[in-house]
């Protein structure tokens, strides 16, 4: 039995399974959006509450997590409208890369590169940052991103293309500046 079917059959047992199966993943995604654990916990709680209450609206055309993520994004949009803000902020966490190199200097360079990439992603405009996070951090398919963000598939593709181009330009500038400062030393 799928989790949404269990929620429909027995809300309490289904909710417990929902939290057990998706709690950590949704919390990690929420932390990337709001950049602090307290707000992330609130966002996840409201999302789970809404998912349990509205599970009958899930039509199965997308992955269940994608649908939950879109519910969470809607709460975030409402919060931003209420606060008058216009940008999502993501935390400093970036997926760890497996470093099999025993060389500490190389490991330090990789960490610096990851920090540079994280900082550049944080500078993207909210719509671009959202598609980058969903695609590369959450590994969502483009069609699922379109449903989660309520944007046409073409718009998602354009945003992702535009984000890649901006990221490449900003990273090139960042690394050129870094190389120039290393040469000056």
Overview of this protein structure:
The protein has 185 residues and is mainly α. The protein has two domains: 1-93, Rna Polymerase Sigma Factor, Chain: A; 98-185, Winged helix-like DNA-binding domain superfamily/Winged helix DNA-binding domain (Arc Repressor Mutant, subunit A). 76% of the residues lie in helices and 0% in strands.
What descriptive keywords fit this protein?
single chain, 185 residues, mainly alpha, Rna Polymerase Sigma Factor, Chain: A, Arc Repressor Mutant, subunit A, 2 domains, 76% helix
Uncertain spans = 85-95
Number of strands: 0
Q: According to CATH, what is the topology of the largest domain?
A: Rna Polymerase Sigma Factor, Chain: A
Give the CATH superfamily of the largest domain: RNA polymerase sigma factor, region 2, helix turn helix motif
Strand content: under 5%
Based on CA atoms alone, the radius of gyration comes out at 19 Å
For the termini, the CA-CA separation is: 62 Å
Secondary structure elements and pairings:
Blueprint: H1 3-9, H2 11-34, H3 37-53, H4 64-83, H5 104-123, H6 126-137, H7 142-149, H8 153-184
Helix pairs in contact: 1-2, 2-3, 2-4, 3-4, 4-7, 5-8, 6-8, 7-8
Structure in a nutshell:
The protein is mainly α and 185 residues long. The chain is 76% helix and 0% strand. The longest helix has 32 residues, at 153-184.
């Amino acid at each position: 039995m799928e989790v949404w079917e269990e929620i429909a059959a027995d809300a309490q047992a289904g909710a417990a399974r929902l939290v057990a199966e998706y709690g950590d993943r949704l919390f990690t995604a929420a932390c990337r959006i709001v950049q602090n654990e307290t707000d992330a916990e609130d966002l996840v709680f409201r999302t789970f509450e809404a998912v349990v209450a509205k599970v009958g609206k899930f039509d199965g055309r997308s992955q269940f997590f994608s649908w939950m993520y879109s519910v969470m994004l809607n709460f975030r949009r409402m919060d931003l409208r209420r606060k008058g803000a216009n940008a999502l902020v993501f935390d400093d966490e970036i997926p760890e890369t497996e470093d099999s190199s025993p060389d500490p200097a190389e490991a330090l360079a990789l960490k610096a590169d990851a920090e540079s990439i994280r900082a550049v992603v944080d500078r993207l405009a909210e719509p671009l940052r959202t598609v980058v996070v969903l695609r590369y951090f959450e590994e969502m398919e483009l069609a699922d991103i379109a449903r989660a963000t309520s944007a046409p598939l073409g718009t998602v593709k354009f945003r992702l293309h535009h984000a890649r181009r901006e990221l490449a330009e900003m990273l090139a500038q960042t690394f050129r500046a870094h190389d120039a400062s290393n040469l000056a030393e």
